[in-house]
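Worked problem 6 (solution included).
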Amino acid sequence: MLNGIMSVLVVFIIMGVGFYFTKRYKWPDNTNKVFSSAVVLIAAPALAIVSIENHFTPQLLQASIWNLLIIAGSVLLMYLIGIILSVAMKLPKKKKAVFVTTFMLNNTMFIGLPIVTIVFGSDGLPYLFTFYLVSIVTFWSLGSFTLSAQAGSEVHKRSFSVKNIFSPGLIGVMIGCVLAGTGISLPMILETSLTYLGDLCVPLSLLVIGSNLALSLSGGFPKITVDMIMIMVGKFVIHPLIIWGAFTLFGITGFPLKVFILMAAMPCHAQTAIMAEYYDLEGEYASNLVSLSTIISLFTIPIYAAILL
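Solution. The predicted structure is:
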């Protein structure tokens, strides 16, 4: 319980720094973009390589195939539930696309990564990247299809690209898996360099989250509607329960399950808001979902951390 509280306090403090410096206009306007790019393009791939290489064995990699399949199944089930709920609430087509995509996916990178690192330490990172692998592939395939289908035929045709799926983070995961599976060790100088770069992930991610909260709340707190409440229930109740039930059913318990449950309880996928804006699909609505779920997660994460530790 105490470790859970301490972990969340660390998160709050670092996020608070990003919130303060953005609110008081203490850093340049493009700081968020620079920090985000550093995380996505450099720090996260480096962290994926060293964490998987150092914590996975060929046997664990083989066992992780089941983990991938179960997580993928849970994400697809969330997608179907999202469709059913959106139809039941009679949402307009554009809002329906954002609702379903947001209901399905979690913020595995900017919130999941620092939270898992602080709560579970480096031992939890390989399991986090297992979840991340499913999330990134699903987002750039099923998620991108769902959003672009409402954006017009020309944009829809341009939206699909294999290079979008093979992002730097995914490439880092693949390199780590090859190293772990073959037993090849990186040269010490390269291993140390990647470790230092990977260490940037947690502080930069949390600074970005705090800064984004300051920006999103500058226009006031969003009006909460029934569909937004359903998204929050999906994020913080339904998906964690699905993960718990599915893994327990297959006899997978212990530390990996704890990491997966915490990952399933993360807020809305931040990039959904960016894609919704790009496709001109209820961009403000998507941003409000990300902001609201992030704020609520400040209260739910301590609860999950206390239960799981």
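Discussion: The chain has 15 helices and no strands.
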